[in-house]
């Protein structure tokens, strides 16, 4: 994990071609000291990193996030109110390129929706 | 970009709301009405570093905070407080290779539009004159 104590994976479920990682954010993670002082909001890029790490887990190897065609952050994630999240990943591999469609949500809210391409690192 | 930077080191805190350990801009070189020029020298302790490389989320955060610094610079000129912004969307992000520890990223952000509290911008990041990353970004400014 790149950012120490940012999240933990509670369980991973495979639903046909899709993988769903149930994760828990840690409000004590040190990034919140700076993002932002007195107003902890999960940095969008830390959530992109969390998706990347889930993708590496599925692929079973280190990946490089070479391109993001689109990543929408539709709602803010606050670690105290939205600590339990669902990271859904659909990944297709072709000649060493991994096309990924990923989302982060909870029961009520979609927080992030991303289309990206990874290659082997 | 060769003249003395307008803000650097600790002085950058006057322009951006982010604080350690997630400050990803350390220099504000200059600005025009719609462009900002920023920099970051990658330290070994940077939280986005792994195995001597500055990883993809660090580069994206650096671009977002470059936009934040530009917004902060304009706010300061108008005697307004430093605005807090959030990334709303990243589009067409490409990264050719990861910067290394001690590399200096130099970023040019260009504002395409500012409507209500949403800024749309393009960004290009170079290391040693070589383009390493580019994207479009939408930033929401907190009311």
Structure in words:
The complex is a heterodimer of chains A (121) and B (143). Chain A has a single domain, classed as Hotdog Thioesterase (Thiol Ester Dehydrase, Chain A). Chain A is 13% helix and 49% strand. Chain A is built from 1 helix and 6 strands. Chain A has a 6-stranded antiparallel β-sheet with strand order 1-2-4-5-6-3, covered by helices on one side. With 143 residues, chain B is an alpha+beta fold. Chain B has one domain: Hotdog Thioesterase (Thiol Ester Dehydrase, Chain A, Roll). Helices cover 15% and strands 44% of the residues of chain B. In chain B, the strands form 2 sheets. A 7-stranded antiparallel β-sheet of chain B has the order 1-2-3-7-8-9-6, covered by helices on one side. In chain B, strands 4-5 form a two-stranded antiparallel sheet. Chain B starts with 6 loop residues before the first strand and ends with a strand. The A-B interface holds A 2-4, 30-31, 33-37, 39, 41, 43-46, 48-49, 52, 64-73, 76 and B 17-23, 47-48, 50, 55-58, 60-61, 64, 84, 86-96, 98, 135.
Question: What topology does this entry show?
Answer:
The complex is a heterodimer of chains A (121) and B (143).
Chain A: E1 7-15, E2 18-25, H1 44-59, E3 63-73, E4 84-94, E5 97-105, E6 110-120
Antiparallel strand pairs in A: 1-2, 2-4, 3-6, 4-5, 5-6
Chain B: E1 7-8, E2 27-31, E3 35-41, E4 49-50, E5 53-54, H1 56-77, E6 85-95, E7 104-115, E8 118-127, E9 130-141
Antiparallel strand pairs in B: 1-2, 2-3, 3-7, 4-5, 6-9, 7-8, 8-9
Q: What are the key terms here?
A:
heterodimer, A: 121 residues, mainly beta, Thiol Ester Dehydrase, Chain A, six-stranded antiparallel sheet, 1 helix, 13% helix, globular, B: 143 residues, alpha+beta, seven-stranded antiparallel sheet, two-stranded antiparallel sheet, 44% strand
Can you describe this structure in just a few lines?
With 121 residues, chain A is mainly beta.
């Amino acid at each position: 994990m790149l950012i120490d104590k940012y999240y933990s994976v509670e369980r991973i479920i495979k639903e046909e071609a899709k993988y769903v990682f149930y994760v828990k954010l840690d409000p004590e993670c040190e990034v919140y000291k700076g993002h932002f002082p007195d107003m902890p909001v999960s940095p969008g890029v830390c959530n992109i990193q969390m998706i990347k790490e889930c993708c590496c887990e599925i692929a079973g190897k280190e990946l490089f996030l070479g391109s993001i065609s689109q990543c929408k952050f539709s709602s803010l994630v606050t670690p105290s109110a939205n600590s339990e999240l669902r990271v859904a990943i659909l990944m297709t591999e072709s000649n060493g390129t991994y096309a990924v469609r990923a989302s982060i949500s909870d029961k009520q809210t979609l927080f992030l929706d991303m289309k990206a391409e990874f290659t082997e690192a | 970009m060769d003249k003395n930077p307008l803000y650097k080191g600790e002085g950058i805190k006057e322009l951006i709301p982010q604080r350690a350990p997630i400050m990803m801009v350390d220099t504000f070189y200059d600005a025009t009405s719609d462009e900002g020029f920023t920099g970051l020298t990658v330290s070994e302790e940077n939280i986005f570093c792994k195995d001597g490389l500055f990883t993809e989320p660090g580069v994206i955060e650096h671009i977002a905070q470059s936009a934040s610094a530009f917004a902060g610079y304009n706010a300061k000129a108008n005697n307004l407080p430093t605005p807090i912004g959030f990334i709303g969307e990243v589009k067409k992000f490409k990264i050719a290779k990861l910067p290394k520890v001690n590399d200096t990223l130099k970023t040019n952000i260009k504002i395409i539009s500012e409507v209500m509290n949403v800024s749309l911008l393009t960004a290009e990041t170079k290391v040693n004159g070589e383009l390493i990353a580019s994207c479009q970004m939408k930033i929401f400014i907190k009311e």
